[in-house]
Each structure stands twice: as structure tokens, then as C-alpha cells.
Specification:
By secondary structure, this protein is mostly helical. It has 2 domains: 16-81; 84-122, no CATH class. It contains 6 helices and 2 strands; from the N terminus they run ααααββαα. Strands 1-2 form a two-stranded antiparallel ribbon. The longest helix is centred in the N-terminal third of the chain and has 22 residues, at 29-50.
């Protein structure tokens, strides 16, 4: 018994942009940009730029991601579309960098890191953290 495609036939590969168009009624601009990046650089290349695993990005493109899609959107907008925010501690930074800084723990050895840590938790409008999260004061 032979398995797979019949000899001499070629399997039509669908691009990520095609998959996005099939999965979403109206493809959001950030999903289209993510799919285009995945088409150009592959899912591994998109993974390195956005900061999410290739499988997570694939499920986002296919509209099946069970996690926080809004957070993925913010990372894509920052990493691929140039969205910036004004950080009280660092000035103008990419939205993806802002989200990365929010995840970092407090470090007393770096004055910049301590300032960003405090700014993120002191009511910064771009922070997705609660104002008192991680603070002991």
C-alpha cells in the first residue's frame, strides 16, 4: 500500500497569507502583516522578531489561538509595524519592547531597570500590570 500523494503529483502549498484569509472573515491588518512576515522569513523568523513561538504564531494566523490575542497584537504592532509608546523611564520605545520590559523582575543592580520596574507599576498608561503588582511598599 502506497501512502502519500500519487507519484508525479505536486502538493499545493498554501502561504500563511492564504491561511489567514481562509481563517478570518476580515483579516486584521496586524494578522496580515504577521502572515506576510511568516511568508518572507518563515515561522521561525517571525518567532524571533515577535517573541512568540512558531506554533503560537501559526495558531494566531489560523484564528485558533486560545491565549490573549490582544497581547499578541501589541507585540506584532511593535515588532513588525513600528508602533511606539512613550515610557516615563526610557522615553519613546517600541510597544513590543514595552511589553518585554514589563515582564522583567526588579533588579537593584541596574538603575534603569529599577526605574522601569517602578514606572510600569506606578500607573503607567501603557502598562498591562496592576499598579501594586510586585510592590511591597
Amino acid at each position: 500500500m502506497n501512502r502519500g500523494p500519487a507519484p508525479g503529483t505536486v502538493r499545493a502549498e498554501r502561504t500563511m497569507s492564504d491561511k489567514a484569509a481562509a481563517a478570518w472573515c476580515t483579516v486584521p491588518d496586524w494578522v496580515a502583516e504577521l502572515a506576510a512576515c511568516a511568508d518572507r522569513e518563515g515561522l521561525r523568523g517571525a518567532e524571533k522578531r515577535v517573541g512568540y513561538s512558531a506554533s503560537a504564531l501559526s495558531t494566531v494566523i489560523n484564528n485558533r489561538y486560545p491565549g490573549d490575542v490582544a497581547r499578541v497584537e501589541e507585540k506584532v504592532r511593535g515588532a513588525l509595524m513600528g508602533a511606539t509608546v512613550t515610557c516615563p523611564a526610557l522615553g519613546e520605545i517600541g510597544r513590543d519592547a514595552c511589553l518585554d520590559w514589563q515582564k522583567k523582575p526588579f533588579a537593584a543592580t541596574s538603575s534603569i531597570r529599577a526605574a522601569v520596574y517602578r514606572a510600569c507599576r506606578a500607573g503607567c498608561r501603557h502598562s498591562s500590570l496592576k499598579a501594586s503588582q510586585g510592590e511591597s511598599c
